[in-house]
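From the methods appendix. Each design record in this collection lists the tokenized structure first, followed by the designed amino acid sequence. Records were kept in a plain field format so they could be parsed without special tools. The example shown here is representative of the layout used throughout.

RECORD:
FOLD TOKENS (257 positions):
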């Protein structure tokens, strides 16, 4: 997953050209002042200043998946991924996975002769949510929440580090939560019964449920949190923009005092 770039409000400022004197006003001084440039002229300019009205200071993802099978077996998986941009353009990344499987108290139902194919989801960009069921009496849900806060408190950093994987195995059941530096993924799987997945990678966020058995209860929940920081709290950006404007003073002509 590429680093998520801050959303910036675009403004353009430039010192106006001095007003040229007419033939009968040769002794008049050039006019000076700061003027707003029309959009038509901005389109012809090569360089523009970007002043951040709001920049992403923290980006967080929480994924939770649960699966209650008809035979009493339970699979649970969760992960949290945080990216702290408050100290510069290179984020501090934290990742905390959690997986758990409880034992079954009955044999898995026979699901032979049933098939589901969700391979095409790997090619989908943007947001995708999918539920494929080949069975009866199943309950499945995909839920996604997006929370955006302005000048909010950046959550405390967890103990997790960078790339990591957590896996639990029990017979034909598996639960995996992983992050490899580019893709965060949560997956629950029962051989012959189906699979439950959530992921976030460059250009794609998705939730997928595939069931080939009866009487299953499955749920996916994904929450994305954004904390935006105003320009006043983004001192490095403010200083860089102010310096750039200062260096360009005098563009368009030199006038005496």
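DESIGN:
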């Amino acid at each position: 997953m590429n680093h998520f770039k801050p959303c910036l409000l675009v403004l353009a400022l430039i010192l106006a050209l001095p007003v040229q004197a007419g033939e009968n006003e040769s002794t008049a001084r050039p006019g000076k002042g700061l003027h707003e440039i029309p959009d038509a002229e901005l389109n012809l300019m090569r360089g523009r200043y970007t002043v951040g009205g709001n920049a992403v200071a923290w980006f967080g993802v929480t994924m939770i998946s649960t699966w209650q099978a008809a035979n009493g077996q339970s699979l649970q998986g969760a992960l949290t991924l945080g990216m702290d941009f408050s100290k510069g353009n290179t984020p501090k990344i934290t990742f905390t996975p959690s997986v758990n499987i409880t034992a079954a108290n009955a044999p898995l139902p026979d699901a032979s002769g049933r098939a589901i194919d969700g391979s095409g989801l790997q090619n989908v960009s943007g947001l995708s949510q999918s539920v494929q069921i080949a069975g009866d009496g199943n309950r499945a849900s995909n839920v996604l929440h997006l929370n955006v806060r302005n000048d909010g408190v950046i959550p405390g950093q967890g103990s997790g580090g960078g790339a990591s994987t957590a896996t639990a195995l029990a017979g034909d059941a598996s639960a995996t939560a992983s992050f490899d530096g580019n893709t965060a993924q949560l997956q629950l799987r029962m051989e012959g019964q189906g699979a439950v997945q959530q992921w976030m990678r460059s250009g794609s966020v998705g939730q997928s449920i595939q069931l080939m058995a009866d009487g299953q209860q499955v749920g996916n929940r994904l929450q994305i949190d954004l904390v935006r920081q105003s320009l006043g709290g983004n001192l490095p950006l403010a200083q860089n923009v102010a310096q750039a404007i200062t260096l360009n003073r005098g563009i368009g002509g030199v006038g005496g005092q």
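APPENDIX NOTE: The two ends are 55 Å apart (CA to CA).
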